[in-house]
Amino acid sequence: xxxxxxxxxxxxxxxxxxxxxxxxxxxxxxxxxxxxxxxxxxxxxxxxxxxxxxxxxxxxxxxxxxxxxxxxxxxxxxxxxxxxxxxxxxxxxxxxxxxxxxxxxxxxxxxxxxxxxxxxxxxxxxxxxxxxxxxxxxxxxxxxxxxxxxxxxxxxxxxxxxxxxxxxxxxxxxxxxxxxxxxxxxxxxxxxxxxxxxxxxxxxxxxxxxxxxxxxxxxxxxxxxxxxxxxxxxxxxxxxxxxxxxxxxxxxxxxxxxxxxxxxxxxxxxxxxxxxxxxxxxxxxxxxxxxxxxxxxxxxxxxxxxxxxxxxxxxxxxxxxxxxxxxxxxxxxxxxxxxxxxxxxxxxxxxxxxxxxxxxxxxxxx
Length: 366
Ligand code: CUA
Description:
Helices cover 39% and strands 16% of the residues. By secondary structure, it is an alpha+beta fold. The chain folds into three domains: 19-139, no CATH class; 146-258, Cupredoxins -  blue copper proteins (Immunoglobulin-like, Sandwich), CATH 2.60.40; 278-363, Orthogonal Bundle (Cytochrome Bc1 Complex, Chain D, domain 2). The strands form three sheets. The protein has a five-stranded mixed sheet with strand order 3-2-1-5-8. Strand 6 and strand 7 (200-203) form a beta hairpin. Helix 3 packs antiparallel against helix 4 (110-139). The structure holds dinuclear copper ion. Residues 152, 155, 190, 225, 227-229, 233, 236 line the site of dinuclear copper ion (CUA).
């Protein structure tokens, strides 16, 4: 009691007598809102100046970018206004030194509360409707869609073109051709994402997820795995090429010829094999199959550590290396465990490519 006395005395005769809001200004709220509006305008200008996404390369990319801009324009003022009012209030209405008294009792302000419930409600509802309209456009089925089956696995993507009977480690698409991607995974969750196309979809074990898009811009892009899927996640990137329809037909023809008459899916041909040496073919097989995600191999610039170091294979002969690729469970290198390496490389890599890969790995031994 005695300790508090000086304080209460202080408040009784001290600063609280003069209300800071009356001192020198009539409308602190108007001033706060004025500051908030100014800061919002500056904030919006800044966020619209930032280049958030790479060059758009699909039909719906522009719609998605516009949607994102609208979201920014709506959320920046809310953030800026709230922060301005909060900071302004903290500075302007802070207690004077020694003032330990309570503030004036306030029982709310109905007008204000109606405003700050109604405006966000209308904003969020309008944005939800707008978002739904854009989503509906994105998911709309187009005519003459080409189907591409996307399969993710630790740590590489495979692309199957069922109608064209082609299988590839590179995603090649004809420009202006609507595509339906059917996305699956052989093991854990992955996420199929080509930033320039804007769309992204998880690959979920046991499910087939679908996205549709039309590439609208020729060029080279990258498919990125956007779901942490293991040690090689960051290396799970592969080439995407959007080409002219003629170039696409030529590519299909090459793939089909190399895989033999109507190569069944799974017979991965050699896209760029003309004049390629065994070493080059081996290196390409190493890269395309994502070996470097898990293995270290200096000459390929690979530094994965999930599997044995391939600079120094324990039993360096062709038969052992081939067996280790085709049937990884047969012999397990010391310090590693069974079941980490996918067991389907034998089906995915055609015999000649496998041969080149084995030779390429043998050559790396010291
Ligand atoms: Cu696959 Cu991350």
